[in-house]
Design brief:
The protein is an alpha/beta fold and 255 residues long. The protein has one domain. It contains eleven helices and eight strands. The strands form two sheets. Strands 1-8-7-6-5-4 form a six-stranded parallel sheet, sandwiched between helices. A two-stranded antiparallel sheet has the order 2-3. Strand 7, helix 10 and strand 8 form a beta-alpha-beta unit.
Length: 255
């Protein structure tokens, strides 16, 4: 496939597919993206009578996305992906919950966010269980494990959203389901910087799992010095193209 904004699309998809198998083609994949950055984007006055009307205007949503990618080139494994999105609680709305429409997201109850990764010839899912932060491994195994197995059973690619250390306590049960990829979200405040979580990341690697890691640019050199590249997918916020080119050069040397 050739995209004007992503001429190396096919090669980048190969890297992502290799990452799912904890393999490396030429370098680890990297997405230039700050976690939850999409929720900083305010559309402003769109002329709609309500936020609900704006969210439900499919033509407006599609044209807004096209305007947002005009003239941009996406480096690394950063893709111009459009997701026809009604928020993370859309499934709950199908079953009768009432959606509340905000400026940048919708909700029924506290929610989680997903990721934009193309998966050719398959079905991708990002299961999560943030509630498990508050329960023991014994209760997780008793009440959540079979539900998780059922949830992922029809998918070809699953990336479990591990939201903090409390959820990480259930890692062995999560991996026992056959899930092979983890999105590690270390949280905020005392959970930064990511370097304190390197032992957990190495543990996932020792289990053969692939790992998405949100990394501050200032921690890149320390991280690649401490961690082997196998199975790592970096998400890094950058300020400009020059920083992204610099990161790509460093990752090509990370062996």
């Amino acid at each position: 496939m050739f995209l004007d904004t992503k001429p190396d699309y096919d090669k980048c998809v190969e890297r992502v597919c290799a990452w799912f198998n904890a393999e490396i083609i030429d370098r680890v994949p990297v997405r230039f993206h700050r976690h939850n950055a999409e929720y900083d984007h305010i559309i402003g006055n769109s002329g709609h009578a309500s936020l609900r009307d704006r969210w439900m205007d499919a033509e407006f949503q599609a044209s807004s996305f096209l305007d947002s990618v005009k003239g941009k080139t996406f480096l690394g494994e950063t893709f111009p992906v459009y997701m026809p999105n009604l928020g993370p609680n859309f499934f709950a709305a199908i079953h009768g919950a009432e959606l509340e429409f905000g400026e940048t997201t919708t909700w029924c109850e506290p929610s989680v966010t997903w990721m934009n990764l193309p998966v050719p010839n398959g079905r991708m899912h990002i299961p999560s269980n943030d509630f498990s932060f508050m329960i023991s491994p014994e209760l997780f195994s008793k009440y959540a494990l079979q539900t998780l197995k059922n949830e992922i059973s029809t998918m070809t690619h699953n990336v479990f959203h591990v939201d903090g250390q409390g959820v990480a306590n259930h890692t062995d049960d999560i991996l026992s389901t056959g899930i092979k990829a983890i999105q590690w979200v270390q949280g905020v405040a005392d959970d930064y910087p990511v370097m304190q979580h390197v032992p957990y990341i190495k543990y996932l690697q020792s289990k053969g799992a692939s790992v998405i890691v949100d990394l501050d640019l200032v921690d890149l050199d320390k991280f690649i010095h401490e961690v082997a590249p196998k199975g790592i997918f970096l998400w890094i916020a950058t300020a400009n193209r020059e920083q992204e080119v610099m990161v790509l050069k460093k990752l090509m040397r990370w062996k």
